[in-house]
Amino acid sequence: MRKQLQNKKRLVIKIGSSILVNEAGQLISAPFRKLARTVAELHQNKIEVALVSSGAIAAGMNRLELKQKPKRIALKQAVAAAGQHALMFEYEKAFAKYQLKVAQVLVGRDDFANRRRYLNIRHSLFEIRKLGLIPIINENDSVATDEIKFGDNDNLSALVTSAYEADLLIILSDVGGVYDLDPSTHSEAQRLSIIEKIDQQVKLGATDTLRPSSTGGMRTKLEAAEKAQHYGVATLIASGHTPNVIQRILRGEDIGTLIVPQDGENRLSAKKHWLAYNLKSQGSLRIDEGACTALQKGRSLLSSGIIKVEGTFNKGDAVDIFCKTSKKVLARGLTSYHSYEIEKIKGLKSSEIEKTLGYKYLDEIIHRNDLVILGEL
After folding, report:
1. Please, are residues 228 and 235 in contact by the beta-carbon 8 Å criterion?
2. Which of 17, 203, 207, 239 is deepest in the core (most CB within 10 A)?
3. Which uninterrupted H or E stretch holds 163?
4. Separation between Cα atoms, residue 1 and residue 201, nearest integer Å
5. Distance (Å, whole) CA 312 – CA 342
6. How far apart are CA 52 and CA 123, in angstroms?
7. Which has the minimum average pLDDT: 29-43, 255-269, 304-318?
8. Which domains occur in the chain, in start order?
9. Beta carbons within 8 Å of 18's beta carbon, 6+ residues apart
10. CA gap 201, 210 in Å, rounded
11. pLDDT class for 148, splitting at 50, 70, 90?
12. Mean pLDDT, residues 177-194 taken together
């Protein structure tokens, strides 16, 4: 299975701040130089690379002599702004040695949630690729608020993997992979070489980071891997401190943890992946058992199957769909009607919509092309 990694031609590599900064929170040039040399070698072999890089906040904390990550939003933004320039300077300096130029790409959750802006990101990344530039992607921390943040670059890397149409996601941190137990507290913990399904047992070994300048941990890396998995892309989680780690991964060596992708039948299309992971739900619909079964068979959601409308939302918004009293989200989709309209037509046949409202947009409340299944009955 690892031998298939030798055929990958487009990579997204996420670099954790623990690789780029020392214990004092200072950016260190050596890992930037090593990464630039590796990417230059990959380019010579016709392998394209996009980097999702942490480190801006850590660099800003060092420049401002802060010992703890700020909690106030405005201060977080200022710290990120102070560190972003220093981070990009290190990348520019390292890649210039190999006659490669970098392109800074700052994005926010809203950029991925809005379909038009999401497509703009895709087109921008494709043009950057055509120009032979190395995209350095980071969350736009200097303007993002907590309500619109990704919160960590691990999950951002999975969304970039979809937008960039990559065929492998590599996540590098200071941990050697996924373990069956938390290796920081269990000396007997064993590395998992390959993971086919990310279940609760796998998540037992996942912990959050304790470093003051970092965000996330193994938990967010598994979340990212699951997103990539559903898009049909493999994820390799490994330590960025391992010598020649990327080259060894691409040679198929047993290093880190490989999370295998979903097969063709279960993988999500680009649009449905966007629906599942980029949009924030604006409300929810509770549906009867018949409608639940119909959705899982690939059918659209009709008004006759709706039991309850929860929240206020507009036509075109994303809503979560629940089966009756279940607490687990079954599906997410883009609604063809406003919440107050669905409130009037819930439980009615499609043929009764126009008579009740005085008009009708569509027969379907959510068309199957605008709907993605997230769970099971």
Report:
1. yes
2. 17
3. helix 153-163
4. 22
5. 11
6. 17
7. 255-269
8. 2-271 (3.40.1160.10), 281-373 (2.30.130.10)
9. 173, 174, 209, 211, 214, 240
10. 22
11. very low
12. 87
